[in-house]
Write a structure and sequence with these properties.
Blueprint lengths: L2 H11 L6 E6 L3 E6 L7 H5 L6 E5 L2 E5 L4 H12 L20 H35 L8 H15 L1 H13 L3 H12 L1 H8 L4 E4 L2 E4 L8 H20 L2 H45 L1 H18 L5 H12 L5 H21 L3 H16 L3 H11 L1 H20 L22 H22 L9
Antiparallel strand pairs: 1-2, 2-4, 3-4, 5-6
């Protein structure tokens, strides 16, 4: 079907335009916030050709459609007559979508970090290419070429707080430029100069303010932007509209920057250091536990929608040690899903399922596993078991050789240059073993072919 026809069918099967409060999308899913979930024709959706899976998550009814999600979503908003990321207003003012703490956390992490992962992945690949060029003596670390490439690859991490601030401002619905200005104050070279000089404290109106670097920081920025959103709402209640444009940003900045330097920053940096230290300790001192848990349960984290929670943790690892030991186990889990989908491709007699399995296998090898996970593994069940066993086998290889990644990107193949280094050969061996084993186990265990209709 054409994207427009497919989008219309999705809208009809979730209860029609009158049942839709909001619609959004990610790389592989079209998401609907609905008034009445009982109006969804779930069985028909699951049997629709092009639908790889469905389910409720984070207060949204999510339909897995693969890599065409953005194009299909564009047709959805055209049909509904709304702008991208807008809310459908018909009879929805009194509808409240209740979310628990986990759902709210998942939505926060997804909204803030998903847009940032694209430039991070691109810069991460540049780091991997640089490692390859240096290892082959094609460029020198003292050359201008290396210097410029290093500027491109690493500046994103130094100025990551600004990207997080702008993304968080969208989530918390506050002024993005005020948020960027507040972060700019924290990253100001004059303040960083105090850090470099070893100054520990200065005073503001007689109150002590801790001096610490906010480059690379994540959690302090999110909390600060949340505070900005609260301050702005409070100020707008009392400031006349004629003075709002000037007084609201003025007072917001005068409040939030000293508050961040004096209280929010020191507390959240300590807290985030504890979280990062806990994961670092787990992978440094109890690697078999961390590696096996990540390798085996990562697909379930994707199903739960909480896998993006590991982005800030890995960013913290990269900024402190230059490597992440978590990404390899994500890569091996993705490879296992690719192998399971390829096994289905080889064994199934259904032309439609064969087509879906081939596409899903390729996507999973690049690093996008939702088509394989929802369209193949979860739907057919036994391929999921095969993938879990195979992922464990690959994880053992990674554990033995302590495989690491030097950046973040879609993996395994999407971020292949990131694994260049002393553990590159074990990485390739682990990936190959996982893929072949997952394919073979899927064929051996078998599965019940599903009929996919248009």
């Amino acid at each position: 079907m054409k994207h427009s026809e497919f989008a219309q069918k999705l809208i009809d099967l979730v209860g029609g335009p009158e049942n839709i409060i909001d619609s959004r999308h990610c790389m592989t899913r079209v998401r609907f916030v609905l008034k009445d979930k009982t109006k969804v024709k779930g069985d028909q959706l699951k049997k629709t050709d092009g639908v790889l899976g469905t389910g409720m998550n984070a207060g949204q009814y999510q339909i897995i459609v693969g890599n065409d999600a953005s194009a299909i979503y564009g047709e959805v908003v055209n049909i509904l007559g709304i702008e991208r990321k807008s809310t459908v207003k018909e009879d929805a003012n009194d509808v409240v979508v209740k979310k628990n703490m986990i759902e709210k956390f998942v939505e926060l992490v997804s909204t803030i970090f998903l847009p940032i992962t694209y430039p991070i992945a691109g810069c991460g690949l540049i780091s991997g290419i640089m490692a390859l060029l240096v290892s082959q003596n094609w460029i020198s670390t003292d050359s201008g070429t290396y210097f410029i490439l290093d500027l491109i690859a690493n500046s994103i991490f130094y100025f990551l707080p600004m990207m997080i601030a702008f993304s968080a401002a969208k989530y918390f619905k506050c002024n993005g430029y005020v948020s960027l200005t507040a972060v700019a104050a924290l990253l100001n070279p004059a303040f960083e100069g105090l850090v470099s000089a070893g100054t520990s404290k200065i005073d503001f109106l007689g109150l002590p303010v801790s001096v610490m670097s906010y480059a690379y920081s994540i959690i302090p920025i999110i909390v600060m932007v949340w505070v900005i959103s609260k301050i702005e709402k409070l100020l707008k209640r009392f400031i006349p509209k004629a003075l709002d444009m000037v007084l609201t940003p003025l007072l917001t900045l005068l409040i939030v920057v000293p508050l961040t330097l004096g209280i929010i920053g020191p507390i959240t940096i300590v807290a985030s250091n504890w979280v990062g230290a806990a994961f670092s300790f787990l992978f440094d001192n109890a690697l078999p536990v961390g590696g096996i848990l990540m390798g085996a349960f990562y697909p379930w984290l994707v199903i739960a929608g909480v896998h993006l929670a590991f982005v800030p943790i890995q960013l913290d690892m990269l900024t402190k040690s230059g490597v992440t030991m978590i990404l390899p186990y994500m890569a091996v889990a993705n490879t296992a899903q690719a192998g399971a989908a390829f096994g289905v491709f080889l064994k199934t007699k259904s032309k439609n399922l064969k087509s879906v399995a081939a596409s899903a296998s390729f996507s999973a090898l690049i690093g996008i596993t939702e088509p394989a996970l929802y369209g193949i593994s979860v739907r057919l069940k036994k391929p999921l078991y095969a993938a879990t066993i195979s992922s464990l086998a690959g994880s053992v290889i990674f554990i033995i050789f302590r495989v690491v990644s030097y950046g973040l990107a879609l993996s395994p193949l999407g971020g292949l240059p990131l694994f260049l280094g002393d553990t590159f050969v074990p990485f390739l061996i682990g990936i190959a073993v996982t893929f072949v084993l997952s394919t073979a186990l899927t064929i051996i265990l078998g599965f019940e072919d599903v009929k996919m209709t248009e």
